[in-house]
Design brief:
Layout (H helix, E strand, L loop, with lengths): L1 H23 L3 E2 L4 H8 L6 E12 L2 E15 L2 E14 L8 H12 L5 E6 L1 H17 L14 E2 L7
Parallel strand pairs: 1-2
Antiparallel strand pairs: 2-3, 3-4, 4-5, 5-6
Helix pairs in contact: 2-4
Length: 164
Protein backbone atom coordinates (compact mmCIF):
# COMPACT_ATOMS: atom_id res chain seq x y z
CA UNK A 1 0.00 0.00 0.00
CA UNK A 2 2.83 2.37 0.89
CA UNK A 3 4.54 1.73 -2.46
CA UNK A 4 1.30 2.54 -4.32
CA UNK A 5 1.00 5.88 -2.49
CA UNK A 6 4.62 6.72 -3.28
CA UNK A 7 4.07 5.81 -6.93
CA UNK A 8 0.86 7.88 -7.13
CA UNK A 9 2.63 10.83 -5.47
CA UNK A 10 5.52 10.55 -7.91
CA UNK A 11 3.14 10.49 -10.90
CA UNK A 12 1.27 13.55 -9.57
CA UNK A 13 4.53 15.47 -9.17
CA UNK A 14 5.54 14.65 -12.76
CA UNK A 15 2.13 15.79 -14.03
CA UNK A 16 2.36 19.02 -12.03
CA UNK A 17 5.84 19.76 -13.41
CA UNK A 18 4.55 19.09 -16.92
CA UNK A 19 1.66 21.53 -16.43
CA UNK A 20 4.00 24.24 -15.14
CA UNK A 21 6.37 23.74 -18.08
CA UNK A 22 3.54 23.83 -20.66
CA UNK A 23 2.24 27.11 -19.17
CA UNK A 24 5.69 28.66 -19.70
CA UNK A 25 5.35 27.93 -23.41
CA UNK A 26 1.96 29.62 -23.78
CA UNK A 27 1.77 33.10 -25.23
CA UNK A 28 -0.57 35.55 -23.51
CA UNK A 29 -2.82 37.33 -26.01
CA UNK A 30 -3.13 40.83 -24.55
CA UNK A 31 -5.47 42.04 -27.32
CA UNK A 32 -5.03 45.82 -27.32
CA UNK A 33 -3.92 46.12 -23.66
CA UNK A 34 -0.42 47.64 -23.86
CA UNK A 35 0.04 47.43 -20.07
CA UNK A 36 -0.67 43.67 -20.17
CA UNK A 37 1.91 43.28 -22.93
CA UNK A 38 4.54 45.35 -21.15
CA UNK A 39 4.05 43.63 -17.81
CA UNK A 40 4.25 40.15 -19.35
CA UNK A 41 7.15 40.90 -21.73
CA UNK A 42 9.25 42.56 -19.03
CA UNK A 43 8.87 39.49 -16.81
CA UNK A 44 12.02 37.74 -18.09
CA UNK A 45 11.05 38.03 -21.76
CA UNK A 46 7.60 36.57 -21.12
CA UNK A 47 5.58 35.49 -24.15
CA UNK A 48 2.86 37.95 -25.11
CA UNK A 49 1.10 39.37 -28.16
CA UNK A 50 -0.33 42.88 -28.63
CA UNK A 51 -2.38 44.40 -31.43
CA UNK A 52 -2.17 48.14 -31.67
CA UNK A 53 -3.76 50.92 -33.67
CA UNK A 54 -1.91 54.19 -33.11
CA UNK A 55 -2.65 57.47 -34.81
CA UNK A 56 -0.18 60.28 -35.34
CA UNK A 57 -1.70 63.57 -36.40
CA UNK A 58 0.09 66.09 -38.58
CA UNK A 59 2.94 63.82 -39.68
CA UNK A 60 4.11 65.29 -43.02
CA UNK A 61 0.70 66.95 -43.32
CA UNK A 62 -1.25 63.72 -42.82
CA UNK A 63 -3.02 61.85 -40.07
CA UNK A 64 -1.48 58.39 -40.12
CA UNK A 65 -2.79 55.27 -38.41
CA UNK A 66 -0.42 52.38 -37.82
CA UNK A 67 -2.05 48.99 -37.22
CA UNK A 68 0.60 46.67 -35.85
CA UNK A 69 1.16 43.41 -34.04
CA UNK A 70 3.91 43.08 -31.45
CA UNK A 71 5.12 39.80 -29.99
CA UNK A 72 7.46 38.89 -27.20
CA UNK A 73 8.37 35.33 -28.18
CA UNK A 74 10.35 34.31 -25.11
CA UNK A 75 14.01 33.82 -24.39
CA UNK A 76 16.73 31.86 -26.18
CA UNK A 77 20.38 31.82 -25.17
CA UNK A 78 19.89 34.77 -22.79
CA UNK A 79 18.37 36.91 -25.53
CA UNK A 80 14.77 38.06 -25.77
CA UNK A 81 13.07 37.22 -29.07
CA UNK A 82 10.81 40.03 -30.25
CA UNK A 83 8.84 40.68 -33.42
CA UNK A 84 6.69 43.43 -34.83
CA UNK A 85 4.56 43.33 -37.93
CA UNK A 86 2.97 46.21 -39.81
CA UNK A 87 -0.56 44.99 -40.50
CA UNK A 88 -1.80 48.12 -42.25
CA UNK A 89 -0.98 51.80 -42.53
CA UNK A 90 -3.65 54.34 -43.37
CA UNK A 91 -3.35 58.03 -44.14
CA UNK A 92 -5.91 60.77 -44.30
CA UNK A 93 -5.26 64.37 -45.22
CA UNK A 94 -7.04 67.27 -43.53
CA UNK A 95 -8.51 69.84 -45.94
CA UNK A 96 -5.85 72.39 -44.97
CA UNK A 97 -3.04 70.07 -46.12
CA UNK A 98 -1.03 71.85 -48.78
CA UNK A 99 0.10 68.76 -50.65
CA UNK A 100 -0.77 68.07 -54.25
CA UNK A 101 -2.71 64.90 -55.03
CA UNK A 102 0.45 63.46 -56.57
CA UNK A 103 2.38 64.12 -53.33
CA UNK A 104 -0.40 62.54 -51.29
CA UNK A 105 -0.45 59.48 -53.55
CA UNK A 106 3.33 59.18 -53.34
CA UNK A 107 3.24 59.40 -49.54
CA UNK A 108 0.54 56.73 -49.30
CA UNK A 109 2.44 54.49 -51.72
CA UNK A 110 5.64 54.86 -49.69
CA UNK A 111 3.84 53.93 -46.48
CA UNK A 112 1.97 50.98 -48.01
CA UNK A 113 5.26 49.21 -48.77
CA UNK A 114 5.54 48.48 -45.02
CA UNK A 115 2.24 46.58 -44.85
CA UNK A 116 2.73 42.93 -44.04
CA UNK A 117 6.42 43.42 -43.27
CA UNK A 118 7.91 41.95 -40.13
CA UNK A 119 11.03 42.46 -38.04
CA UNK A 120 12.26 39.65 -35.79
CA UNK A 121 14.93 40.62 -33.29
CA UNK A 122 17.19 38.93 -30.77
CA UNK A 123 17.93 41.51 -28.09
CA UNK A 124 19.80 41.54 -24.82
CA UNK A 125 17.46 41.83 -21.86
CA UNK A 126 18.44 45.50 -21.35
CA UNK A 127 17.90 46.39 -25.03
CA UNK A 128 14.59 44.54 -25.01
CA UNK A 129 13.32 46.22 -21.84
CA UNK A 130 14.29 49.69 -23.09
CA UNK A 131 12.62 49.07 -26.45
CA UNK A 132 9.41 47.67 -24.92
CA UNK A 133 9.08 50.65 -22.58
CA UNK A 134 9.63 53.11 -25.43
CA UNK A 135 7.27 51.23 -27.77
CA UNK A 136 4.47 51.05 -25.18
CA UNK A 137 4.96 54.77 -24.47
CA UNK A 138 4.50 55.41 -28.19
CA UNK A 139 1.32 53.33 -28.30
CA UNK A 140 -0.15 55.17 -25.33
CA UNK A 141 0.80 58.70 -26.39
CA UNK A 142 1.46 58.62 -30.14
CA UNK A 143 4.83 60.21 -29.38
CA UNK A 144 6.52 60.25 -32.79
CA UNK A 145 10.06 60.17 -31.33
CA UNK A 146 9.75 56.37 -31.33
CA UNK A 147 10.68 54.62 -34.57
CA UNK A 148 11.68 51.25 -35.92
CA UNK A 149 15.19 52.68 -36.12
CA UNK A 150 15.26 52.17 -32.35
CA UNK A 151 15.70 48.44 -33.05
CA UNK A 152 19.37 47.56 -33.61
CA UNK A 153 19.35 46.48 -37.28
CA UNK A 154 22.31 44.16 -36.73
CA UNK A 155 20.19 42.13 -34.31
CA UNK A 156 17.08 41.89 -36.49
CA UNK A 157 15.99 40.03 -39.60
CA UNK A 158 12.79 39.72 -41.58
CA UNK A 159 10.93 41.18 -44.51
CA UNK A 160 11.03 44.71 -43.04
CA UNK A 161 14.78 44.75 -43.57
CA UNK A 162 14.46 43.66 -47.19
CA UNK A 163 12.80 46.94 -48.21
CA UNK A 164 14.73 49.16 -50.59
Amino acid sequence: MNNKLILIGFVLIILLIGCIQSNKNLQLDCGTDADCFQQTALNDCGKAKLNSSTQISGLFGADITFNMQFESRGKEENQCIYSQKWLSIEASFPPETQLTQEEKDQMVSSMKQFEGKEAICRLSKTEFENYIRKMVGFIKTGNATFSSDDLPADKCTGSFYELN
